[in-house]
Amino acid sequence: MPTLDGLLMGDKITLLAVGAPSTGKTVSLADWPRPIQLHDFDFRLRPLLQVVPMEVRKEIEYHSYGPTDFQKFYDNMNKLELRCPFKTVVVDSLTTASSAIVGYSMSMRKGEVAASKGRKEYKSKGVIQIPEIEDYGAEGQALTDLIDFGRIIPAHFILTAHMITLDCKNLQGETWTEYSVLTAGRKIAAKIPALFDEVWWFEKTRDMSGKESYTVHFRGKGEGGLLSKTALPLPQRLTWTDKPGIFLQVQALLKEKGAAIKS
Predict the structure, then answer these.
(1) Cis peptide preceding 35, ω within 30 of 0
(2) Which residues of the chain have pLDDT under 50?
(3) Model pTM?
(4) CA distance 158 to 29
(5) Which domains, ranges and CATH numbers included, belong to the chain?
(6) Tag placement on the chain: N or C end, fewer CB within 10 Å?
(7) Residue 48 DSSP symbol
């Protein structure tokens, strides 16, 4: 039986990188250990060209997926499970991957309707097909599979996610704010952060002079089901003013504590 003395801190990172759009989630992760494989659902890779030097761009392989390409992504992740030559695997982002899963499920259901020759129907509004309960069930299972792939492969696994703010109020009139990752269905959104060792919350601010700064919260940020957390000996937050990645800065903080992320 395995014992705790066989576990190594930082040898395998599972990271959920959350934040509003344009807070530096993707570009900040570009300096993680290479080679990197990036699974792109957002179609927003060009900002990486501003921060990734020409000489290392060949070490970042990417695959882009359209609204109904989830089968292609699933096949690629299966290949990684059999053989993974990469040190870091990134999926960008949970939000658009979720939409792709629902779109894939709807396209499969539409095919079943066509094959049934009128015995089955699907809901639509004009030419727009409407998602049904089974599509959200497919989303929940497929996202669980996606994260399971990331936890199994012998590489650091990073999933970026957009978030939403929920204003809540109880019967006594008390109000509070909760945060959640943005997915098509609500049930799976509450489960996702619990499946990661690391949940890092990204923010971008601008001072009175207009100068931008970036902050990643390692712990203590958020409310409700989405709270930043870390299993590493990191401070509460890290702030920097230049946009390129944070991996080397995180490594420097860990070195002070006698720790490191495997590179």
Answers:
(1) yes
(2) 119
(3) 0.87
(4) 8
(5) 4-255 (3.40.50)
(6) N
(7) G
